[in-house]
Amino acid sequence: MNGAEQASGRDHLEPERLFFVIGQWSGADVTVWTVLEAPPGADERADAWEECALEAEDAFGSVEVVFAASAAEAERAVRREAAETAVLSTLRSRRSGAGSQRRVSHYYR
After folding, report:
1. Phi/psi at 46 (nearest 5 deg)?
2. Among 33, 43, 79, 97, which one is most buried in terms of CB atoms within 10 A?
3. Any domain includes 107
4. Which domain, by its residues, includes 45?
5. Does some domain include residue 96?
């Protein structure tokens, strides 16, 4: 058993495949509409992504491309990434003082 298998606790690891996770993102809140396995060919995959992206944009959504072993795992990965990104974004804005009540005044003579 290799290190990855030991770390996951599984005897057999499923190969990761590309998935399109389609939905709406707002900070850590993710509404997943559907998860589709991406076609194996590069040209087919690009065409499928473009079609999904256009349809998602019409509904104010987007398409995330994720490597995962299953559709459920792809959805979990997107939700985890959205939560982590929201936390990092909040920390960055707190550090920068964005949105704070402090005002900086410049006086010119």
Report:
1. -65, -45
2. 79
3. no
4. 12-91
5. no
Please answer whether residues 86 and 28 qualify as being in contact, where contact means their C-beta atoms are separated by less than 8 angstroms.
yes
Structure tokens at 40: 């194996």
Asked if 22 and 35 count as a contact pair (C-beta separation under 8 A), the reply is yes
How many beta carbons lie within 10 A of that of residue 37, not counting itself?
Answer: 14
Token duo for residue 15? 């190969």
Strands laid side by side in the 62-68 sheet: 29-37, 17-26, 62-68
Q: How many domains does the structure of the chain reveal?
A: 1
Q: How would you write the pLDDT of the chain (109 residues) with one tens digit per residue?
A: 444 444 444 445 778 999 999 999 887 788 999 999 999 999 999 999 999 999 999 989 999 999 999 999 999 999 998 888 877 666 666 655 555 444 444 444 4
For 105, residues 6+ apart whose C-beta sits below 8 A from its C-beta are: none
